[in-house]
Amino acid sequence: MSNADFSSLPLKPALLQSIASLAYSQMTAIQQHSLPAMLAGKDVIAKAKTGSGKTVAFALALLSVIDVNDYRTQALVLCPTRELAEQVSKEIRTLARFIPNIKLLTLCGGTPIAAQLTSLEQAPQIIVGTAGRIVDHINRDSVALAAVKVVVLDEADRMLDMGFEDDIRKIIKHTPKSRQTLLFSATYPDAIKAMSASIQDAPVEITIETTGEYQHIEQHFVEVAHSDKAQAVMKLLMHYRPESTVIFCNTKADCSEVCQLLESKGFDVLALHGDLEQRDREQVLLRFANKSCPVLVATDVAARGLDIKDLTAVINFELAHDPEIHVHRIGRTGRAGNQGLAFNLCAPREAPRVVAIETFQKIRADWLSLNALAVPVVASLKAQMVTLAIDGGRKDKLRPTDILGALTGEGGLLGADVGKIDIFDTRAFVAVNKAVAPKALKRLQAGQIKGKRFRVSKLV
Residue 206's closest CA among 238, 190, 182? Predict the structure, then answer.
Protein backbone atom coordinates (compact mmCIF):
# COMPACT_ATOMS: atom_id res chain seq x y z
CA MET A 1 0.00 0.00 0.00
CA SER A 2 1.42 3.39 -1.00
CA ASN A 3 1.95 6.01 1.69
CA ALA A 4 0.38 8.43 -0.82
CA ASP A 5 -2.88 6.48 -0.60
CA PHE A 6 -5.62 7.90 1.65
CA SER A 7 -6.33 4.42 3.00
CA SER A 8 -2.91 4.52 4.69
CA LEU A 9 -4.26 7.20 7.07
CA PRO A 10 -6.25 6.64 10.29
CA LEU A 11 -9.45 8.12 8.80
CA LYS A 12 -13.03 7.27 9.76
CA PRO A 13 -14.71 4.76 7.40
CA ALA A 14 -17.27 7.41 6.40
CA LEU A 15 -14.47 9.72 5.25
CA LEU A 16 -12.74 6.96 3.29
CA GLN A 17 -16.12 6.23 1.68
CA SER A 18 -16.42 9.88 0.60
CA ILE A 19 -12.87 9.90 -0.77
CA ALA A 20 -13.58 6.74 -2.76
CA SER A 21 -16.83 8.20 -4.15
CA LEU A 22 -14.92 11.29 -5.33
CA ALA A 23 -12.25 9.13 -7.01
CA TYR A 24 -9.40 10.77 -5.07
CA SER A 25 -6.93 7.95 -5.66
CA GLN A 26 -3.68 9.51 -4.42
CA MET A 27 -2.86 12.33 -2.02
CA THR A 28 -1.37 15.56 -3.32
CA ALA A 29 1.98 16.65 -1.88
CA ILE A 30 0.42 18.99 0.70
CA GLN A 31 -2.04 16.27 1.79
CA GLN A 32 0.68 13.64 2.10
CA HIS A 33 2.92 15.88 4.21
CA SER A 34 0.31 17.62 6.39
CA LEU A 35 -2.39 15.03 7.12
CA PRO A 36 -0.35 12.70 9.38
CA ALA A 37 0.58 15.64 11.63
CA MET A 38 -2.93 17.12 11.61
CA LEU A 39 -4.58 13.77 12.35
CA ALA A 40 -2.13 13.36 15.26
CA GLY A 41 -3.54 16.61 16.71
CA LYS A 42 -0.46 18.74 16.06
CA ASP A 43 -0.49 22.39 15.05
CA VAL A 44 0.60 22.91 11.43
CA ILE A 45 1.85 25.90 9.44
CA ALA A 46 1.83 25.02 5.76
CA LYS A 47 2.91 26.96 2.70
CA ALA A 48 0.49 25.91 -0.01
CA LYS A 49 -0.88 27.62 -3.08
CA THR A 50 -4.45 27.61 -4.39
CA GLY A 51 -5.22 24.33 -6.14
CA SER A 52 -2.76 22.26 -4.09
CA GLY A 53 -5.44 20.22 -2.32
CA LYS A 54 -5.07 22.02 1.01
CA THR A 55 -8.85 22.37 1.52
CA VAL A 56 -9.35 18.61 1.37
CA ALA A 57 -6.43 18.21 3.79
CA PHE A 58 -7.76 20.43 6.55
CA ALA A 59 -11.37 19.35 5.90
CA LEU A 60 -10.43 15.73 6.57
CA ALA A 61 -8.53 16.77 9.69
CA LEU A 62 -11.38 18.74 11.23
CA LEU A 63 -14.06 16.18 10.26
CA SER A 64 -11.98 13.55 12.05
CA VAL A 65 -12.46 15.26 15.42
CA ILE A 66 -16.14 16.22 15.16
CA ASP A 67 -18.41 14.50 17.68
CA VAL A 68 -21.81 14.35 15.96
CA ASN A 69 -23.53 13.89 19.33
CA ASP A 70 -22.11 17.16 20.66
CA TYR A 71 -24.28 20.05 19.47
CA ARG A 72 -21.68 22.74 20.06
CA THR A 73 -19.32 24.45 17.62
CA GLN A 74 -16.20 22.26 17.45
CA ALA A 75 -14.40 23.56 14.34
CA LEU A 76 -13.87 27.06 12.95
CA VAL A 77 -12.44 27.93 9.52
CA LEU A 78 -11.55 31.56 8.78
CA CYS A 79 -11.27 32.67 5.13
CA PRO A 80 -10.39 36.06 3.60
CA THR A 81 -13.42 36.30 1.29
CA ARG A 82 -16.99 35.16 1.07
CA GLU A 83 -16.48 33.21 -2.16
CA LEU A 84 -13.55 31.27 -0.69
CA ALA A 85 -15.66 30.53 2.42
CA GLU A 86 -18.40 29.19 0.11
CA GLN A 87 -15.87 27.00 -1.73
CA VAL A 88 -14.50 25.64 1.55
CA SER A 89 -18.00 24.98 2.92
CA LYS A 90 -18.94 23.10 -0.25
CA GLU A 91 -15.79 20.93 -0.01
CA ILE A 92 -16.38 20.10 3.65
CA ARG A 93 -20.05 19.24 3.02
CA THR A 94 -19.02 16.94 0.17
CA LEU A 95 -16.50 15.09 2.33
CA ALA A 96 -19.02 14.87 5.21
CA ARG A 97 -21.80 13.40 3.05
CA PHE A 98 -21.65 9.96 4.71
CA ILE A 99 -21.43 11.32 8.28
CA PRO A 100 -24.96 11.77 9.69
CA ASN A 101 -26.13 14.79 11.71
CA ILE A 102 -23.33 17.23 10.91
CA LYS A 103 -24.39 20.86 10.75
CA LEU A 104 -22.17 23.38 8.97
CA LEU A 105 -22.91 27.10 8.79
CA THR A 106 -21.24 29.69 6.56
CA LEU A 107 -21.03 33.14 8.21
CA CYS A 108 -19.89 35.97 5.94
CA GLY A 109 -20.56 39.64 5.44
CA GLY A 110 -22.67 40.78 2.51
CA THR A 111 -25.63 38.66 3.63
CA PRO A 112 -28.36 39.64 6.14
CA ILE A 113 -27.29 38.93 9.70
CA ALA A 114 -30.87 38.22 10.83
CA ALA A 115 -31.02 34.93 8.90
CA GLN A 116 -27.66 33.93 10.38
CA LEU A 117 -28.90 34.66 13.91
CA THR A 118 -31.86 32.32 13.33
CA SER A 119 -29.54 29.56 12.04
CA LEU A 120 -27.27 30.00 15.07
CA GLU A 121 -30.09 29.25 17.52
CA GLN A 122 -28.96 25.64 17.14
CA ALA A 123 -25.17 25.79 17.20
CA PRO A 124 -23.46 24.24 14.14
CA GLN A 125 -20.60 21.83 14.77
CA ILE A 126 -18.60 23.59 12.02
CA ILE A 127 -18.47 27.31 11.22
CA VAL A 128 -16.78 28.60 8.06
CA GLY A 129 -16.65 32.36 7.67
CA THR A 130 -14.90 35.68 7.30
CA ALA A 131 -13.22 37.29 10.29
CA GLY A 132 -15.29 40.48 10.24
CA ARG A 133 -18.64 38.68 10.37
CA ILE A 134 -17.46 36.22 13.04
CA VAL A 135 -16.45 39.21 15.21
CA ASP A 136 -19.91 40.72 14.64
CA HIS A 137 -21.45 37.54 16.05
CA ILE A 138 -19.01 37.44 18.97
CA ASN A 139 -20.04 41.01 19.84
CA ARG A 140 -23.70 39.93 19.73
CA ASP A 141 -23.01 36.80 21.82
CA SER A 142 -24.60 34.79 19.01
CA VAL A 143 -21.66 32.37 18.59
CA ALA A 144 -20.02 30.30 21.32
CA LEU A 145 -16.48 29.12 20.61
CA ALA A 146 -15.63 27.61 24.00
CA ALA A 147 -15.89 24.03 22.65
CA VAL A 148 -13.80 24.60 19.53
CA LYS A 149 -11.23 21.85 18.98
CA VAL A 150 -9.75 23.04 15.66
CA VAL A 151 -9.20 26.50 14.18
CA VAL A 152 -8.12 26.79 10.52
CA LEU A 153 -6.73 30.01 9.03
CA ASP A 154 -7.02 29.59 5.26
CA GLU A 155 -5.00 31.98 3.06
CA ALA A 156 -3.74 33.63 6.23
CA ASP A 157 -1.36 35.94 4.37
CA ARG A 158 -4.22 37.42 2.42
CA MET A 159 -6.29 37.95 5.59
CA LEU A 160 -3.39 39.95 7.02
CA ASP A 161 -3.04 41.90 3.74
CA MET A 162 -6.72 42.84 4.05
CA GLY A 163 -6.27 44.16 7.60
CA PHE A 164 -7.95 41.37 9.58
CA GLU A 165 -5.15 40.71 12.08
CA ASP A 166 -6.93 42.33 15.05
CA ASP A 167 -10.16 40.49 14.24
CA ILE A 168 -8.33 37.15 13.99
CA ARG A 169 -6.64 37.69 17.33
CA LYS A 170 -9.96 38.60 18.96
CA ILE A 171 -11.58 35.44 17.60
CA ILE A 172 -8.67 33.26 18.75
CA LYS A 173 -9.03 34.64 22.31
CA HIS A 174 -12.56 33.23 22.43
CA THR A 175 -11.35 29.67 21.66
CA PRO A 176 -9.74 27.26 24.15
CA LYS A 177 -5.96 27.35 24.56
CA SER A 178 -5.96 23.58 24.11
CA ARG A 179 -7.27 23.90 20.51
CA GLN A 180 -5.41 22.69 17.42
CA THR A 181 -4.47 25.57 15.10
CA LEU A 182 -3.85 24.97 11.39
CA LEU A 183 -2.43 27.86 9.36
CA PHE A 184 -2.27 27.77 5.55
CA SER A 185 -0.56 30.53 3.59
CA ALA A 186 0.67 30.97 0.01
CA THR A 187 3.63 33.06 1.24
CA TYR A 188 5.65 33.36 4.47
CA PRO A 189 6.00 37.08 5.24
CA ASP A 190 7.25 38.15 8.68
CA ALA A 191 3.67 38.95 9.77
CA ILE A 192 2.69 35.30 9.25
CA LYS A 193 5.68 34.07 11.23
CA ALA A 194 4.79 36.46 14.06
CA MET A 195 1.16 35.34 14.10
CA SER A 196 2.15 31.67 14.09
CA ALA A 197 4.50 32.26 17.03
CA SER A 198 1.71 33.87 19.07
CA ILE A 199 -1.23 31.53 18.34
CA GLN A 200 0.35 28.12 17.63
CA ASP A 201 2.06 25.57 19.86
CA ALA A 202 5.23 24.01 18.38
CA PRO A 203 3.72 23.84 14.87
CA VAL A 204 4.95 21.37 12.28
CA GLU A 205 6.25 23.48 9.37
CA ILE A 206 5.49 22.21 5.87
CA THR A 207 6.70 23.74 2.61
CA ILE A 208 5.99 22.11 -0.70
CA GLU A 209 8.76 23.02 -3.11
CA THR A 210 7.45 24.71 -6.25
CA THR A 211 10.55 23.95 -8.36
CA GLY A 212 9.60 21.57 -11.15
CA GLU A 213 5.86 22.10 -10.69
CA TYR A 214 5.56 24.19 -13.84
CA GLN A 215 6.64 21.74 -16.53
CA HIS A 216 3.13 21.95 -18.00
CA ILE A 217 3.37 25.73 -18.43
CA GLU A 218 4.80 27.28 -21.59
CA GLN A 219 6.18 30.58 -20.27
CA HIS A 220 7.30 33.52 -22.43
CA PHE A 221 8.64 37.00 -21.66
CA VAL A 222 7.82 39.93 -23.97
CA GLU A 223 9.80 43.18 -23.93
CA VAL A 224 7.41 46.09 -24.51
CA ALA A 225 7.13 49.73 -23.43
CA HIS A 226 4.58 50.28 -20.69
CA SER A 227 2.50 52.52 -22.96
CA ASP A 228 2.20 49.68 -25.50
CA LYS A 229 1.27 46.92 -23.08
CA ALA A 230 -2.51 47.08 -23.55
CA GLN A 231 -2.07 46.62 -27.32
CA ALA A 232 0.35 43.75 -26.65
CA VAL A 233 -2.28 42.00 -24.51
CA MET A 234 -4.79 42.25 -27.34
CA LYS A 235 -2.31 40.83 -29.86
CA LEU A 236 -1.48 37.85 -27.61
CA LEU A 237 -5.17 37.07 -27.13
CA MET A 238 -5.93 37.36 -30.84
CA HIS A 239 -3.03 35.09 -31.85
CA TYR A 240 -3.32 32.35 -29.21
CA ARG A 241 -7.13 32.59 -28.68
CA PRO A 242 -7.10 30.94 -25.22
CA GLU A 243 -10.44 29.67 -23.92
CA SER A 244 -9.93 31.33 -20.51
CA THR A 245 -7.34 33.95 -19.54
CA VAL A 246 -6.54 35.90 -16.39
CA ILE A 247 -4.63 39.15 -16.95
CA PHE A 248 -2.84 40.25 -13.78
CA CYS A 249 -2.34 43.96 -13.18
CA ASN A 250 -0.56 45.60 -10.24
CA THR A 251 -3.00 48.54 -10.03
CA LYS A 252 -6.73 49.19 -10.42
CA ALA A 253 -5.91 51.88 -13.04
CA ASP A 254 -4.14 49.33 -15.26
CA CYS A 255 -7.11 46.95 -14.77
CA SER A 256 -9.51 49.60 -16.05
CA GLU A 257 -7.28 50.55 -19.01
CA VAL A 258 -6.90 46.97 -20.25
CA CYS A 259 -10.57 46.15 -19.70
CA GLN A 260 -11.77 49.25 -21.56
CA LEU A 261 -9.50 48.62 -24.55
CA LEU A 262 -10.58 44.99 -24.91
CA GLU A 263 -14.26 45.92 -24.53
CA SER A 264 -13.89 48.58 -27.25
CA LYS A 265 -12.50 45.90 -29.60
CA GLY A 266 -15.44 43.55 -29.01
CA PHE A 267 -13.94 41.16 -26.42
CA ASP A 268 -16.12 39.69 -23.68
CA VAL A 269 -14.10 40.78 -20.62
CA LEU A 270 -14.66 41.40 -16.91
CA ALA A 271 -12.59 43.29 -14.33
CA LEU A 272 -11.92 42.20 -10.74
CA HIS A 273 -10.48 44.67 -8.23
CA GLY A 274 -10.86 45.74 -4.63
CA ASP A 275 -13.43 48.47 -5.29
CA LEU A 276 -16.14 46.04 -6.40
CA GLU A 277 -19.07 45.38 -4.10
CA GLN A 278 -19.06 41.84 -2.68
CA ARG A 279 -22.08 40.72 -4.74
CA ASP A 280 -20.57 42.09 -7.97
CA ARG A 281 -17.23 40.45 -7.18
CA GLU A 282 -18.89 37.06 -6.62
CA GLN A 283 -20.82 37.30 -9.86
CA VAL A 284 -17.68 38.23 -11.84
CA LEU A 285 -15.83 35.19 -10.44
CA LEU A 286 -18.79 32.94 -11.06
CA ARG A 287 -19.26 34.05 -14.69
CA PHE A 288 -15.56 33.57 -15.41
CA ALA A 289 -15.44 30.15 -13.75
CA ASN A 290 -18.43 28.84 -15.73
CA LYS A 291 -17.12 30.11 -19.10
CA SER A 292 -19.63 32.96 -19.43
CA CYS A 293 -16.65 35.27 -19.96
CA PRO A 294 -13.29 34.25 -21.50
CA VAL A 295 -11.11 37.08 -20.16
CA LEU A 296 -10.71 38.33 -16.58
CA VAL A 297 -8.53 41.35 -15.74
CA ALA A 298 -7.60 41.28 -12.05
CA THR A 299 -5.34 42.59 -9.33
CA ASP A 300 -3.45 40.06 -7.17
CA VAL A 301 -5.44 40.64 -3.99
CA ALA A 302 -8.75 40.41 -5.84
CA ALA A 303 -7.80 37.17 -7.59
CA ARG A 304 -6.63 35.24 -4.53
CA GLY A 305 -9.13 32.49 -3.87
CA LEU A 306 -9.86 32.17 -7.59
CA ASP A 307 -9.93 28.44 -8.27
CA ILE A 308 -10.38 27.69 -11.97
CA LYS A 309 -9.45 24.11 -12.71
CA ASP A 310 -8.72 24.50 -16.42
CA LEU A 311 -7.41 28.04 -16.87
CA THR A 312 -5.77 28.20 -20.32
CA ALA A 313 -3.53 31.25 -19.98
CA VAL A 314 -2.13 33.87 -17.63
CA ILE A 315 -0.85 37.25 -18.83
CA ASN A 316 1.19 39.39 -16.45
CA PHE A 317 0.52 42.96 -17.59
CA GLU A 318 3.29 44.02 -15.22
CA LEU A 319 5.67 41.71 -13.41
CA ALA A 320 5.03 41.15 -9.72
CA HIS A 321 7.55 42.79 -7.36
CA ASP A 322 8.02 39.45 -5.55
CA PRO A 323 9.04 36.33 -7.58
CA GLU A 324 7.04 34.19 -5.14
CA ILE A 325 3.87 36.07 -6.17
CA HIS A 326 4.89 35.59 -9.81
CA VAL A 327 4.96 31.79 -9.52
CA HIS A 328 1.67 31.92 -7.60
CA ARG A 329 0.15 33.82 -10.57
CA ILE A 330 1.41 31.53 -13.34
CA GLY A 331 0.67 28.43 -11.26
CA ARG A 332 -3.04 29.01 -11.87
CA THR A 333 -2.63 27.56 -15.37
CA GLY A 334 -1.21 24.19 -16.44
CA ARG A 335 -2.94 22.26 -13.64
CA ALA A 336 -3.91 18.60 -13.41
CA GLY A 337 -1.64 17.66 -16.30
CA ASN A 338 -3.15 20.22 -18.70
CA GLN A 339 -0.91 22.48 -20.78
CA GLY A 340 -0.92 26.15 -19.82
CA LEU A 341 0.39 29.43 -21.25
CA ALA A 342 2.02 32.27 -19.30
CA PHE A 343 3.04 35.58 -20.89
CA ASN A 344 5.02 38.23 -19.01
CA LEU A 345 5.04 41.77 -20.40
CA CYS A 346 8.25 43.54 -19.36
CA ALA A 347 9.10 47.21 -19.72
CA PRO A 348 12.87 47.92 -19.63
CA ARG A 349 12.64 49.14 -16.02
CA GLU A 350 11.34 45.68 -15.01
CA ALA A 351 14.58 43.92 -16.00
CA PRO A 352 15.67 43.33 -12.36
CA ARG A 353 12.36 41.53 -11.73
CA VAL A 354 13.07 39.20 -14.67
CA VAL A 355 16.44 38.33 -13.13
CA ALA A 356 14.77 37.66 -9.75
CA ILE A 357 12.23 35.33 -11.41
CA GLU A 358 15.00 33.48 -13.31
CA THR A 359 16.89 32.95 -10.05
CA PHE A 360 13.82 31.89 -8.08
CA GLN A 361 12.47 29.49 -10.73
CA LYS A 362 15.93 28.34 -11.82
CA ILE A 363 15.11 29.08 -15.47
CA ARG A 364 16.36 31.15 -18.39
CA ALA A 365 13.75 33.63 -19.66
CA ASP A 366 12.34 32.71 -23.07
CA TRP A 367 11.78 35.96 -25.03
CA LEU A 368 8.94 36.19 -27.53
CA SER A 369 8.72 38.70 -30.38
CA LEU A 370 5.26 40.21 -30.86
CA ASN A 371 6.12 40.95 -34.51
CA ALA A 372 6.34 37.22 -35.17
CA LEU A 373 2.72 36.63 -34.15
CA ALA A 374 0.05 36.28 -36.82
CA VAL A 375 -3.25 38.01 -36.06
CA PRO A 376 -6.40 36.33 -37.45
CA VAL A 377 -9.25 38.14 -39.17
CA VAL A 378 -11.62 37.28 -36.28
CA ALA A 379 -10.02 39.59 -33.77
CA SER A 380 -12.05 39.22 -30.57
CA LEU A 381 -12.97 36.54 -28.05
CA LYS A 382 -16.59 35.81 -27.15
CA ALA A 383 -18.06 33.76 -24.31
CA GLN A 384 -19.29 30.23 -25.03
CA MET A 385 -21.86 30.29 -22.25
CA VAL A 386 -24.44 32.57 -20.60
CA THR A 387 -25.23 32.50 -16.87
CA LEU A 388 -28.84 32.36 -15.69
CA ALA A 389 -29.61 33.41 -12.09
CA ILE A 390 -32.40 31.65 -10.16
CA ASP A 391 -33.86 33.28 -7.04
CA GLY A 392 -33.88 30.05 -5.07
CA GLY A 393 -31.18 27.95 -3.50
CA ARG A 394 -30.14 25.54 -0.81
CA LYS A 395 -32.79 26.81 1.60
CA ASP A 396 -35.42 25.93 -1.02
CA LYS A 397 -33.95 22.40 -1.15
CA LEU A 398 -32.76 22.99 -4.73
CA ARG A 399 -30.12 20.58 -6.05
CA PRO A 400 -28.12 20.66 -9.29
CA THR A 401 -30.12 17.66 -10.57
CA ASP A 402 -33.38 19.63 -10.14
CA ILE A 403 -32.10 22.48 -12.35
CA LEU A 404 -30.60 20.08 -14.90
CA GLY A 405 -33.88 18.17 -15.03
CA ALA A 406 -35.93 21.35 -15.57
CA LEU A 407 -33.71 22.33 -18.51
CA THR A 408 -33.33 18.94 -20.19
CA GLY A 409 -36.81 17.60 -19.44
CA GLU A 410 -39.66 20.01 -20.22
CA GLY A 411 -37.03 22.62 -21.11
CA GLY A 412 -36.01 20.58 -24.14
CA LEU A 413 -32.24 21.28 -23.91
CA LEU A 414 -29.54 18.70 -24.45
CA GLY A 415 -27.37 17.78 -21.48
CA ALA A 416 -24.35 19.06 -23.42
CA ASP A 417 -25.94 22.54 -23.52
CA VAL A 418 -25.88 22.83 -19.72
CA GLY A 419 -22.63 23.79 -18.00
CA LYS A 420 -21.61 24.49 -14.42
CA ILE A 421 -24.36 24.75 -11.78
CA ASP A 422 -23.67 26.63 -8.52
CA ILE A 423 -26.13 26.59 -5.64
CA PHE A 424 -25.94 28.95 -2.64
CA ASP A 425 -28.32 29.51 0.28
CA THR A 426 -30.84 31.73 -1.52
CA ARG A 427 -29.67 31.81 -5.16
CA ALA A 428 -28.56 29.38 -7.84
CA PHE A 429 -26.69 29.91 -11.10
CA VAL A 430 -26.53 27.76 -14.21
CA ALA A 431 -24.37 28.23 -17.30
CA VAL A 432 -26.04 27.36 -20.60
CA ASN A 433 -24.76 27.35 -24.16
CA LYS A 434 -25.06 30.84 -25.63
CA ALA A 435 -26.96 29.57 -28.69
CA VAL A 436 -29.80 28.15 -26.57
CA ALA A 437 -29.72 30.71 -23.73
CA PRO A 438 -32.88 32.62 -24.83
CA LYS A 439 -34.81 29.35 -25.03
CA ALA A 440 -33.49 28.18 -21.65
CA LEU A 441 -34.37 31.47 -19.98
CA LYS A 442 -37.89 31.48 -21.43
CA ARG A 443 -38.55 27.87 -20.36
CA LEU A 444 -37.32 28.41 -16.79
CA GLN A 445 -39.32 31.62 -16.44
CA ALA A 446 -42.48 29.97 -17.71
CA GLY A 447 -42.05 26.59 -16.03
CA GLN A 448 -41.27 25.17 -12.61
CA ILE A 449 -38.26 23.69 -10.84
CA LYS A 450 -39.05 20.93 -8.37
CA GLY A 451 -42.73 21.86 -8.54
CA LYS A 452 -42.15 25.52 -7.68
CA ARG A 453 -41.93 28.69 -9.75
CA PHE A 454 -38.80 30.83 -9.30
CA ARG A 455 -37.78 34.19 -10.71
CA VAL A 456 -35.04 33.64 -13.32
CA SER A 457 -32.90 36.27 -15.06
CA LYS A 458 -29.83 36.51 -17.27
CA LEU A 459 -26.69 37.59 -15.41
CA VAL A 460 -24.96 40.54 -17.09
Answer: 182
